[in-house]
């Protein structure tokens, strides 16, 4: 259980299988976000059809509404949401910071007022684990603090030290062996602080590690060096999860740097706003041109929307504010990201990842590939060597 | 083509097959409403799965946005919407009256300002037919005036006479033989005016007839006698369509009186408001009790929502304003109405329709079956006899 079996490598990028109680997933993978117990607008059957492997649930939202006890009464998130595969829950830490009002952070944990009804709530490492055990995901996350960007260097340091003490309390509080607890490495964009966080975190030897505190507003030119620095210092034989990321270009760059797992609300959120992800960049269905185009959103896509609808029809739905519009765009965008990681996996397996990623990026960025992206690809083939392990064991 | 083959009778109720270019439908049937080229929130695949047979499109909405030319460029509504089965379009008349601003009715037609952008638009019998030919439905409706309730008797009379002149112009304007034009009988709740409208309308011998001008605010005690009076005077061997109806009880009462076709936005609209249709009446998922119920919406339903979700989960989606909530409630409500007509057909075929309808109504109305409903059932077994025809020919 929770074994991570690497099947192919290309530079730092790798394809692996991760075994969870509710099934084996193949990485790199993108996880759709089901904040409130539903991936917005999409049914579990559709998630399975488009190749979703693991769904993320948000502890903060679910503990406030409907409450973890009701989810537990359904046998956890699979029974509650009817998605039969693996789940991951976050710890609630990030959203307490971004959504809770009047939050106060102490060594004990965080107290805040609910964004729903203003009631006072406390979230501690122990409470986060208890809620996540009730929610019953296959992977649960350590309760951490994710400092904003920018933040004082000293604050980030104090925070990452506390995050490690919280991690120790999470490990202590955890009671369900069928759940994998992932630790989270912090340290902002400062490599020395990342190193300190790694030194504090790695000894806990959790079944997976997350790169936290990134994609919170910092420029990509600072984010990706921190991803590269952290990812190559995480154990080779355990999954690496870049939290809250991302856009298509983030997935390709992250995979290049050895990241295995991603999640983001972006595909569904941008879909609700009328945008479709394609290899040519983001298509805006609010614009006038698509209203007359009788072609699919994306010629190469096999999703229900691309197999059945024209851009003109989908643009009509967006204009008319019809529910089927955001539903179909969300479905397409999720499928686009799933296909993107599938294509990346195929390229890794054939040893053509960098070439594939370069070709993809030339088209996606319309010839103007940003330096940070080029640098991520360049670093994919370099860096210090991981301990060699018997990867088939 | 457009043959209506009666397969079973029970009192005035009947089961029949109606042959259209895009397939044969079995009546009585309920038609989901796809106002703007989509049944709100529901995919064509789902419509097929829940037993939808024919979808209604609204001429008024579609001519204003996206415009009938774009729909025609997709090969009509099936190509535009990806629903591969039969369609019916209304004439636009009803919605000009209810949605158009500053509308002016003359012998020529109706001029109005679009509810979308205030632009001046004219709709005439000829234009309605031209738009409906571009939309390409299997059944198209004559352009009529539907007077409000209450309306002056004299106005209703002048209006029904003009509606017949408009019908003659529709018949004249029609060019596509693969579309069946249905005439609409008006006359409000006045039986003598209904008789006059019948006398004017029947000679046009269209492949089907609609009961118009009902369900516009009049009490059920006035509506159903008008339905009974009109339905029994329409040709036995042609489909009868009660427009804009209805609620579950309306379907059962209408079927009892010999109605074959129904349409209404009710199941999707009430679903978006958090209500589920069941044999026990309408379940309000905004209330507190369902939030703790781990049972399906409806034990006897086979829809996706009832097979996968608890009331507690669906109530959570409603409370959290998650798109999947209205989607699943709309799906269930449509399936409920499709199952209701399927059960009615089964009862007609076994000669047990009245007994079934009584049992259904006792439970649905919780013992307080309204007089108008009882009277509709009573009338089902009476009334003057239709011309006997060879029903298998």
From TrEMBL, chains A, B:
What are the names of the required cofactors? Zn(2+)
- Region of interest called RNA binding, as start-end residue ranges on this chain: 244-250, 268-272
Assembly, in brief, is:
Homodimer. Within each dimer, one monomer is responsible for RNA recognition and catalysis, while the other monomer binds to the replacement base PreQ1.
- Function of this protein? Catalyzes the base-exchange of a guanine (G) residue with the queuine precursor 7-aminomethyl-7-deazaguanine (PreQ1) at position 34 (anticodon wobble position) in tRNAs with GU(N) anticodons (tRNA-Asp, -Asn, -His and -Tyr). Catalysis occurs through a double-displacement mechanism. The nucleophile active site attacks the C1' of nucleotide 34 to detach the guanine base from the RNA, forming a covalent enzyme-RNA intermediate. The proton acceptor active site deprotonates the incoming PreQ1, allowing a nucleophilic attack on the C1' of the ribose to form the product.
Q: Where does Zn(2+) bind?
A: 301, 303, 306, 332
Tell me its family: Belongs to the queuine tRNA-ribosyltransferase family.
**Start and end of every tRNA-guanine(15) transglycosylase-like domain?**
12-365
Enzyme Commission code(s) on record: 2.4.2.29
Pathway field of the UniProt record reads: tRNA modification; tRNA-queuosine biosynthesis
Task: Give Gene Ontology CC terms.
Answer: cytosol
User: GO BP, one example?
Assistant: tRNA queuosine(34) biosynthetic process
Task: Indicate the residues that form the catalytic site.
Answer: 90 (proton acceptor), 263 (nucleophile)
| Name recorded for this polypeptide | Queuine tRNA-ribosyltransferase
Taxon lineage: Bacteria, Thermotogati, Deinococcota, Deinococci, Deinococcales
């Amino acid at each position: 259980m929770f074994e991570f079996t690497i099947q192919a490598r290309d530079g730092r990028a790798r394809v692996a299988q991760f075994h969870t109680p509710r099934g084996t997933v193949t990485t790199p993978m993108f996880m759709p976000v089901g904040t409130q117990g539903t991936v917005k607008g999409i049914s579990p059957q559709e998630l399975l059809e488009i190749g979703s492997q693991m769904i993320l649930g948000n502890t903060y939202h679910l503990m406030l509404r409907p409450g973890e006890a009701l989810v537990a009464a359904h046998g956890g998130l699979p029974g509650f949401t009817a998605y039969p595969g693996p789940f991951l829950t976050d710890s609630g830490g990030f959203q307490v910071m971004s959504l809770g009002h009047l939050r106060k952070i102490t060594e004990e944990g965080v107290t805040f007022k609910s964004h729903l009804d203003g009631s006072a709530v406390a979230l501690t490492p122990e409470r986060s684990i208890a809620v996540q055990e009730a929610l019953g995901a296959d992977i649960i996350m350590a309760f951490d603090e994710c400092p904003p960007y920018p933040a004082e260097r000293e604050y980030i340091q104090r925070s990452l030290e506390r995050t490690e003490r919280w991690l120790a309390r999470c490990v202590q509080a955890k009671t369900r062996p069928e759940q994998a607890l992932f630790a989270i490495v912090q340290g902002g964009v400062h490599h020395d602080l990342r190193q300190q966080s790694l030194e504090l975190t790695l000894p806990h030897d959790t079944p997976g590690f997350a790169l936290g505190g990134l994609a919170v507003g910092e420029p990509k030119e600072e984010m990706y060096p921190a991803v590269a620095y952290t990812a190559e210092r995480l154990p080779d034989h355990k999954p690496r999860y870049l939290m809250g990321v991302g856009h298509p270009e983030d997935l390709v760059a992250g995979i290049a740097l050895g990241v295995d797992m991603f999640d983001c609300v972006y595909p569904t959120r941008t879909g609700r706003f009328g945008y479709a992800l394609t290899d040519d960049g983001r298509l805006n269905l609010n614009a006038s041109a698509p209203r007359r185009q009788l072609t699919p959103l994306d010629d190469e896509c096999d999703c229900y929307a691309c197999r059945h609808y024209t851009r003109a029809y989908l643009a009509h739905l967006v204009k008319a504010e019809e529910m089927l519009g955001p539903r179909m765009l969300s479905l397409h965008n999720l499928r686009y990201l799933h296909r993107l990681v599938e294509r990346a996996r195929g390229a890794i397996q054939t040893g053509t990842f960098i070439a594939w990623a370069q070709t993809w990026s030339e088209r996606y960025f319309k010839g103007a590939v940003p330096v940070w992206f080029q640098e991520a690809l360049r670093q994919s083939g370099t860096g210090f060597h991981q301990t060699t392990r018997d990867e088939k064991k």
